[in-house]
Amino acid sequence: MSVYGDRARLTTLWDAERELFRATHPASGELWSRASAHLPGGVPMLWMSKWPGDWPVYVEEASGAHFRCADGIDYVDLCLGDTGAMVGHAPEAAVRALTARLTAGSTFMLPTEDAAIAAETLSERFGLPEWQFTLSATDANRHVLRYARQATGRRKVLVIDYCYHGTVDEAYATLDGDGRVVSRRRNIGPPVPLDETTVVVEFDDLPGLEAALATREVAAVLIEPAMTNIGIVLPSPGWHDAVRAACDRTGTVLVIDETHTLSAGPGGMTARDGLRPDVVVVGKTIGGGVPAGAWGMTRELADRVRASLDWDGEGREDLDVGGVGGTLAGNALSMAGIRATLSEVLTPEVYPGMIARATEWTQGVQAAIDRLGAPWQVTQLGCRAEYSFRPTPPRNGQEAADADDFALQQYLHLHALNRGILMTPFHNMALMSPATTSADVERHTEAFHDAVEALYG
Length: 457
Ligand SMILES: Cc1ncc(COP(=O)(O)O)c(C=O)c1O
Hints:
By secondary structure, the chain is an alpha/beta fold.
């Protein structure tokens, strides 16, 4: 579906940007040709080939909110590794702690002091007492679903239409046009038909959620507190209280995935809005640049799982991985990264500045939209903001998806890239790190204005 009418003009603008990209990124082009011999798409993970332009930009080095590519161009990075680098690139305190850990050994299958301190800090921030660590938020979500099944003896998982929680089999489901649960488009090798494992409801559809939970077949509700992967969709007032109440009535485990919504504050939306999940999942930026994920849970949930497995009692000799974890999960390097990041980089003190930058970005983009008469709008969530090609904020995933226009998005992103600004691929999101400055934001505002003027002027 297209939301921008003048396709001929869009094609002309797109062709000009492609030509400019090719002319200014020859070194990345050469690296891509070489890499393509043994890497499908010339990239280590196929989704990295989805950037606009004829080939991806190859990075040489990065610091704070900027990086330099193989062609020597400096960029303001508003993608920040899609939250993986929300703390900024190579934050000094994290690099110091990580370097010290690397030179003193980084993986042992044994704990270090950093683990205890990281867990204490996360407990304080999210109000949940028991933590486990993984290499990614995907892994944490996978493991949490197993905990929820074990605790409840139920099989199914409820997710929101157009959600994304990483490459989690059960969450890779969507609703078809007739409201049936089906596998997401182009899902590779789903283990079983997805309606066997998953119930899908629209965001904010309380009657749908209540009816699904009333069957008492659902082990866990897995939600983001605001949707962030189909654009930003904020919840209606009362949604979270009602979800909590429905979970309480039906004995369902409530899992809140704060991987992206950590943008809202040091304890995500959970702390900011006083939410009461049974489990919180975090990941990406918490490692300060190295892979790390974690989940926190209530004592009650952890006790239920332990009791069902007879782990802490006489059966200690049976203590096993339980099918959860991985050799490098909770490794000493990840734990050093999390400790340093939470205590010295992503501190409560840096949030007001990050959020102020996102407000400047939101205001600049909205002003350009209004001045040029584009029927679009911007939504902000803490230090993250995103524009969508519709005049009012989307209320659910379907509304957000209906406003998608891939060619238009590609043009805007390539226009930005050609002016030294990296937007987040797949959607129109900008993220602010502690190192992002007002001048960085202004660089985007000016370029965005020119791009929209070329479309609507
Ligand atoms: C809300 C949410 N949860 C989990 C993940 C998975 O994170 P990772 O890919 O780092 O495992 C993502 C990734 O974008 C996400 O957006």
